[in-house]
Design goal:
266 residues; alpha/beta; single chain; eight-stranded mixed beta sheet; Rossmann fold
């Protein structure tokens, strides 16, 4: 499959590397041009390109960039992509931390709906709800026990099946997160967000999401605790478990017997 990855930060480079290992034809690009991504491309067996080159003939395009940078991409960017190109949005909205406030989202519009409207293209939301460390280090072969899951939200069943296949290639179980309008259920500080759950628990987390609750957590408890965790600039691998425990504590999911699940006892 021909895949263009735009954005080569922690998420983008991890996706590009693994898919290249799986035999996909991968092109990588960022805003600085082919020379800036050439060393990465050489290291992982991908092709370096500019953003137009990454999209040219691509069957899948991954937008692995900070929110809301995707909305600033050229309007004609996808004109040379393959018919039916599957566009995957991996970004998350963090207002007053990294991103400027966006009125429509603050009033309840799902983040990826906002992005899709700016791109004037149907998109899928995936790979936004797993920390880059887990994406890079915690994948397992298909059929493994305790395999972590990644939800995908979108409206086209065929496109969604493509995304699910790519999730499986990364070493994770895909979970159907519903329509793009339902993608708020996997946004920051929801029960399914960055909690390192298996497929069944991820599905329960998606179902347990309450409209409007996550934003309050994100802007208060999450911000304060996250800042303390990273105050001394630790290596991310050293605090991953603490980040996951923190995220789970915000939305403890009851186990089938009514007790908090997955080691949470809050």
């Amino acid at each position: 499959m021909k895949i263009g990855v735009i954005g080569v930060g922690e998420i983008g480079r991890t996706l590009a590397r693994r898919w290249s290992e799986k035999g996909h034809t991968v092109r990588v690009a960022n805003s600085r041009g082919p020379s800036a991504v050439q060393p990465l491309a050489d290291a992982i067996g991908a092709e370096a390109a500019d953003v137009f080159g990454a999209v040219d003939g691509a069957e899948v395009v991954v937008l692995a960039m900070a929110f809301p940078v995707a909305a600033t991409l050229p309007k004609d960017l996808f004109d040379r992509a393959a018919d039916g190109v599957v566009i995957i949005d991996t970004s998350n909205y963090y207002p007053d931390v990294r991103d400027a406030r966006i009125r429509e989202i603050d009033e309840g519009m799902p983040e990826s709906i906002w992005t899709a409207r700016h791109l004037d293209r149907p998109i899928f939301k995936a790979f936004n709800s797993l920390m880059f460390y887990a994406l890079s280090e915690l994948g397992k072969p298909e059929g493994s026990s305790n395999r972590l899951a990644i939800p995908v939200a979108g409206d086209d069943p065929l496109g969604k099946s493509v995304v699910m296949g790519l999730i499986n290639d990364m070493g994770f179980n895909p979970v159907d997160g519903g329509s793009l309008a339902d993608s708020w259920r996997q946004q920051p500080s929801t029960p399914a967000y960055c909690c390192d759950y298996d497929a069944a628990t991820t599905q329960r987390g998606i179902s347990a999401a309450v409209k409007g609750k996550a934003e309050k957590i994100r802007d208060t408890a999450w911000r304060a605790k996250y800042s303390r965790l990273f105050a001394d600039r630790p290596a991310y691998a050293d605090v991953h478990a603490a980040v996951i425990a923190m995220n789970r504590s915000f939305n403890p999911l009851p186990d089938l017997d009514g007790r908090p699940c997955c080691g949470d006892r809050t």
